[in-house]
Amino acid sequence: MVKCIISTVLFGLLISGCAPHRGEKPFWGHEYTENNETLVVLDSGLASRLRLVDEATDKTADSRLIVKAKLMNRLEKTMRIQVQTVFKDAKGFSTGDETNWELIIIPAKAYYYYEVKAMNAKAAGYVIRCRYAK
Questions:
Q1: How far is it, in rounded angstroms, from Cα 73 to Cα 45?
Q2: Would you say 70 and 56 are in contact if contact means Cβ atoms under 8 Å apart?
Q3: Do residues 114 and 80 touch, judged by C-beta distance below 8 A?
Q4: How many CA atoms, within 13 angstroms, populate the side-chain half-sphere of residue 125?
Q5: Chain segment 71-104, per-residue pLDDT in tens
Q6: Half-sphere exposure of 13 (CA within 13 A, CB side)
Q7: What topology does CATH give the domain 36-132?
Q8: What is the pTM of this model?
Q9: How far is CA 76 from CA 20, 49, 50, 72, 87, in A?
């Protein structure tokens, strides 16, 4: 009888411990990832497989923002991802300037140098979005 009770309690703990955890939705605007980070990974498994090694910004002669990022594939196989850059003004709002989704193929354990220019001079900040290729 005691073994039955103990096994029932352990089984209940096992089931409740394996339930998926749902993240809390941010309440304030500054809690959103796109407001705090420059690289946002949109797919769940991609965050551990893709690493932002280095990033830099520069300006063109006509004051447009240039974004440079060094991405690393941490896998032992070739990775196919899509990348998009959203440019933001000094207050953090989108300037309406965002690039199309670009297909990037990164070989195993290799680096990829991503570079993109803003289309207007309003851009002061940016967010790089990454997802698996569809």
A1: 13
A2: no
A3: no
A4: 14
A5: 999 999 999 999 999 999 988 888 888 999 999 9
A6: 6
A7: Immunoglobulin-like (2.60.40)
A8: 0.74
A9: 28, 10, 12, 12, 32
